Prior knowledge:
Number of strands: 2
Number of helices: 26
Strand order of the largest sheet: 1-2
Largest sheet: 2 strands, parallel
Amino acid sequence: MIKHNSLRCALVLAINFLMLVIFGCATTENGKIPITTRSEQARKYFLEGRDLFEKLRFQESLQFFEKAVMEDSNFALGYLYLSFPQPSAKGFFEMLDKAVALADKASPGERLWILGVEAGVNGFAMKQREYYQKLVADYPEDERALNLLGNHYFGLQEYALAIEEYTKATQIAPDFSQPYNQLGYAHRFLGNYAEAEKAFKKYIQLIPDDPNPYDSYAELLMKMGEFDKSIEFYQKALATDPNFVASHIGIATNLNFKGNHQDARKQLQVLYQMARNDGERRAAHFAMTVSYVDEGNTDKALEEQNKQYALAEKINDASAMAGDLVIMGNILLEAGSFDEALAKYNKAVELVEESDLSEEVKDNTRRGFLFNAAQVALKKKDFETAEANSEEYRKQVEAIYNPLQIRLSHQLAGMIALEKKQYDKALEELKQASQQNPYNLYRMAMAYMGKGDKEKAKEFYVKVSKFNALNSLNYSFIRKKAERLVDSM
């Protein structure tokens, strides 16, 4: 499992997990980032939570971080860590705000770390990079600082740069497990499956009694189309921890790809029944949504999203509710219900505007609405509105230089060009969009088909049909379409 769009992407960028804890204030030991706490007991709890968290045992880590900040209410990094495993977006923001408020009481390294997370959440990717690069410059011998910078590059799909940082981290601390997991994913995204397998096997060797190494290797096997073997490794992960959420979802995804959608949802029902909090229940609902969309059942998919929304509504979690509404809008858009989709997008913005979320998060939401409204206009053949929103979106994301959102601006421009049958322009734009979104590969195939290049179109349809993305709504929209097109060519 990797801890890899809008607010969801911002959170992914923010939740970079790599750590070292040394008791003290602003002094360093062996070139590592110091940790500021006045309580030895808080430090002990923090260390226990960190150990679990670094193994992606999020729910188990939560209680230790809670105990740490109870022992020391000024423990800035304790609140930062406490934000990461929160089962709700609302809880995440509340704990992050406390960490930011206390950042000036922490060591300089901790402060850089905390402000970097805040910058990522607010959509300021280059500001986050500035903080993390300074952190590494100040603590070049801290493997966790290197891993943090690597995660930043990884989140922006700069995989070669990420690999450099992860490799440095493994050289400093060969027994530190996290970089091997991230190395495996970085190589996987670059198509270097042999190197990915090597990294994941080393990861298994380092912590063989934990679930995530088996889970990560299982995802590589899924990507390679080895669905049955992938399920075996997901089951190994569950044998070490039956509550490991990602492995239940991984098994379900494999079953979707095998055409066994009912069995996939039975697996997800197991997850739902053993869920320890609403965050895990929401994860089960979303995976159910993906399964239903992949099967072609839009109504059932929307039912699952409504259940997911109800869990967020129960605690007035505005950011999660807004995210759910956007997902509903995307499903409705694909189903041809354009006005209903736009209504969901509008409601999402209204919820965030009325919330106490930061102005930066609200700005991110407003930008997201420009993107979504442009998609609706495009579906309605209202090219003037689509192009106006697209241009405004481009200007705004370039102003803050957010690479992920800049890729989305190219995606939107490519979608418009494709719809207008400007196939060369569509390809030019889509090549600059995210290549980790299989829908963009599908659009490129359509552009090649429009140009009359059936061979190239088939090449891309095959890529899509074999993309095998874990629990991806975008992939569920077009996976079967791509398979049918390959069969017909």
